[in-house]
Specification:
This protein is an alpha+beta fold and 556 residues long. It has 13 helices and 26 strands. The strands form seven sheets. It has an eight-stranded mixed sheet with strand order 15-14-23-22-21-16-17-20, with helices on both faces. A hairpin with a 5-residue loop joins strand 18 and strand 19. The radius of gyration is 28 Å and the shape is elongated.
C-alpha cells in the first residue's frame, strides 16, 4: 500500500483518503473543527492547516509549496511528508484559536459543554494561553431553535456542521448562516423550527457549547457521568447508544457509532424516550391479588412469598390443564429463553406467544440511508426466535407454534388454559381489551414495570427491570443480534425477568435459585438448535467508560 509520513510517522493509506482521515485512522491527532466523517468538507475552520512536502515527479526530491494547506481537504499521495507540528503550523494553530476566542464568552464554569468541549481542549493544546483582545466583545442572543435545542450564538465558532447536517443528512434545511464577518451566526429559516426526527443530533455534532440539549441543561457535570454501551430499547432499529448515568440515575442517551446500523445518529424518540425508567409510579415490590406481598424492610421475604405463590399457580394450572406464556417484545432474548424453560418445564405443551408489537405509522428512510422504524419494540424477532427454539427442544411437544398477541389470546381460550404468565415492560399502556378478556378467570402471574389494567387483577405481580437495568441482547428489524450491558442497578427491589425465571424454575425443583449470569445463559443458548449465534462476542463493546474532564477534582 502507498505510504505517507505525518509528523515523522510513516502511515499506509488507501487512495481517496485525505491527510486528516489517514491521521485519524492512525490515532495521530490533527486539530479540526469543521470536519466530520459524515459531512461534506468546507475547510473553513483552518486549524488543520499543515506544511506539505511532495516528491517532484521529475527529480524525486521533496518540495514544498511554501504555504499551509488544509489536511481535511488535501488527498494523501505516495511519498508525501506532512508536518502539523512545525513552527509555521503551530503559529497558524495559535492564530486560529485566538480568532475563535476573540468574541467567545468566558463562561466555561456554567456551560454544559465544559469537560467535553473541543474549544477548551484545543485552547489548552494549541492556544496562546492568554488573550490580547481588549476591545468589547460582540454579544449575540440565546435562541430556541427547536423543541429540544437551545442555540447560544455567543459560543458558536461557525464550523457549520449543524447547517450541513440539515442540508445533507436530513435534507430538511432548517438551519442557515446569517450575516457576515463578526456578526455572522447560525439561525433557523423564518417560520421553520429545527424539529425533524433526527434534529437533536446537531447537539452531538457541535464541537463547542453553542447547541445544547434543553433536557440535559444544568442537570449534571459530564465528568461525573459513566458511559455504558447499550442498544436502543425503544424501537426495532437496534441503534447503538451510550447510556450516561450517575448514582443510579440516567441523565442522557447519546448515539454510539456503528456504520452498519445507525451510522453516527439516533432519533429524538430514542434520545428522549427513556424517561419511563425513572417514573415515580414504577412497580418496586411484589403484590399478591393487588396487595403488597411485604414491605420494603422485608423485601427479600416478600419476594420469597411471591415466587412461591407464582410457582404454585403455575404448578396447579399445569396439573389442572394447560399453561400459557406471553413474552413481551420489550424483553431480551435471554429473558424469553429462560421464561420459556420455566413454563415448559411445567407444561411441555404450554401456549406460547409474543406480546403486542406497537407500530406507529410507517418506516421513514432519510436520504443518507438512516431509517426511522415504525415498529416500537426492540426485540419481537429475538423473542420469537428464542421461544421457537426452546419449544422445539422439548421432547414430546405436540406443536412448536409461537403465536402473535391476537393468536395467543384465541389459543388461550380454545386450549382452556388454567394459568397464564404474562410479561409487559412497555414504556406506556399496552394491555388491550382482548388480552384482558383472555386472561380473565384464569390464574395470572404478571411481570411488569409500570402499573396498568392487570396490575391489581393479577394473582401475583412481580416487578421487573427496564433494559438499562439489566444485560441481554436484542434482534433488530434487519435480523441483527446485538448484546447490551446493564447501565444502572435495578430500581429498589425489582428483578430482571431472567432472574425471576431462574427463581421460578428453582422453586419447581425445590432448589435454591441461581443468580442470573448473561455469559452462562448465552453459552447454554448457543448449544440449542436455532440459537447458535449466541456467543460471548455479541457484545460489540466490552469497556465501560467514564467521561474524563481536563480539570483535577479536589475534595474540599
Amino acid at each position: 500500500m502507498p505510504q505517507i509520513t505525518i509528523n515523522g510517522k510513516p502511515m499506509e493509506f488507501q487512495k481517496g483518503q485525505t491527510i486528516l482521515q489517514v491521521a485519524l485512522a492512525n490515532e495521530e491527532e490533527i486539530p479540526h473543527y469543521c470536519y466530520h466523517d459524515s459531512l461534506s468538507i468546507p475547510a473553513n475552520c483552518r486549524i488543520c492547516l499543515a506544511e506539505i512536502w511532495q516528491p517532484n515527479p521529475k527529480t524525486g526530491k521533496l518540495e514544498s509549496t511554501g504555504r499551509l494547506s488544509p489536511t481535511c481537504h488535501t488527498h494523501a499521495a505516495e511519498g508525501m511528508v506532512v508536518y502539523t507540528d512545525s513552527d509555521k503550523a503551530k503559529a497558524n494553530q495559535k492564530a486560529v484559536m485566538e480568532y475563535l476566542l476573540i468574541n467567545h464568552p468566558v463562561d466555561c464554569a456554567i456551560c454544559d459543554q465544559a469537560g467535553e468541549c473541543g474549544l477548551q481542549d484545543y485552547s489548552h493544546e494549541y492556544g496562546r494561553g492568554e488573550s490580547r483582545f481588549v476591545e468589547e466583545k460582540i454579544k449575540n442572543p440565546k435562541k430556541q431553535v427547536g423543541p429540544n435545542i437551545l442555540l447560544y450564538s455567543d459560543r458558536c465558532i461557525m464550523c457549520t456542521r449543524c447547517v450541513r447536517f440539515t442540508r445533507e443528512v436530513t435534507q430538511t434545511n432548517e438551519l442557515m448562516v446569517e450575516g457576515r464577518g463578526g456578526t455572522e451566526m447560525i439561525d433557523v429559516f423564518p417560520g421553520m423550527a429545527l424539529d425533524n426526527e433526527l434534529a437533536s443530533n446537531v447537539i452531538d455534532l457541535c464541537p463547542v457549547g453553542a447547541l445544547l440539549d434543553k433536557d440535559f441543561l444544568f442537570q449534571q457535570r459530564v465528568w461525573f457521568l459513566t458511559k455504558t454501551p447499550s442498544i436502543d430499547g425503544i424501537t426495532s432499529s437496534g441503534d447503538n447508544i451510550s447510556v450516561e448515568h450517575n448514582d443510579g440515575r440516567v441523565y442522557r442517551i447519546k448515539p454510539r457509532r456503528n456504520a452498519a446500523v445507525n451510522q453516527w445518529w439516533i432519533t429524538d424518540e430514542v434520545r428522549y424516550g427513556w424517561k419511563f425508567v425513572h417514573r415515580e409510579d414504577r412497580l418496586s415490590l411484589p403484590m399478591l391479588k393487588g396487595q403488597p406481598a411485604g414491605d420494603a424492610a422485608h423485601a427479600a421475604q416478600a419476594w420469597t412469598t411471591a415466587i412461591e405463590a407464582a410457582g404454585a399457580a403455575l404448578a396447579q394450572g399445569a396439573a389442572a390443564g394447560r399453561l400459557a406464556l406471553l413474552v413481551s417484545p420489550m424483553l431480551s432474548c435471554e429473558d424469553a429463553y429462560l421464561l420459556a424453560h420455566a413454563v415448559l418445564a411445567h407444561d411441555a405443551n404450554a401456549v406460547l406467544g409474543v406480546g403486542p408489537v406497537p407500530v406507529d405509522g410507517q418506516d421513514k428512510t432519510f436520504p443518507n440511508g438512516f431509517v426511522v422504524r415504525a415498529e416500537k419494540a426492540p426485540n419481537a424477532r429475538g423473542v420469537r426466535m428464542a421461544l421457537e427454539a426452546v419449544a422445539s427442544s422439548f421432547a414430546g411437544r405436540s406443536a412448536a407454534a409461537v403465536h402473535d398477541a391476537a393468536g395467543w389470546c384465541a389459543a388461550v381460550q380454545s386450549a382452556g388454559a388454567k394459568a397464564c404468565l404474562v410479561t409487559g415492560n412497555y414504556p406506556s399502556a399496552w394491555q388491550s381489551d382482548e388480552l384482558v378478556r383472555a386472561v380473565s378467570g384464569r390464574a395470572l402471574v404478571l411481570i411488569d414495570t409500570l402499573p396498568d389494567r392487570l396490575t391489581n387483577a393479577a394473582d401475583v405481580m412481580l416487578p421487573s427491570c427496564t433494559w438499562v437495568e439489566k444485560a441481554g441482547s436484542f434482534v433488530n428489524a434487519n435480523g441483527l443480534l446485538q448484546g447490551f450491558k446493564a447501565a444502572i442497578a435495578p430500581l429498589d427491589f425489582a428483578r430482571s425477568e431472567s432472574q425471576i425465571a431462574l427463581e421460578l424454575d428453582a422453586h419447581r425443583r425445590h432448589a435454591r435459585g441461581a443468580a442470573f449470569a448473561v455469559a452462562t445463559v448465552r453459552a447454554e443458548m448457543a448449544r440449542t438448535k436455532g440459537l447458535e449465534g449466541f456467543t460471548a462476542d455479541i457484545d460489540p463493546v466490552t469497556k465501560v467508560a467514564t467521561v474524563q474532564a481536563d480539570m483535577e477534582l479536589v475534595a474540599l
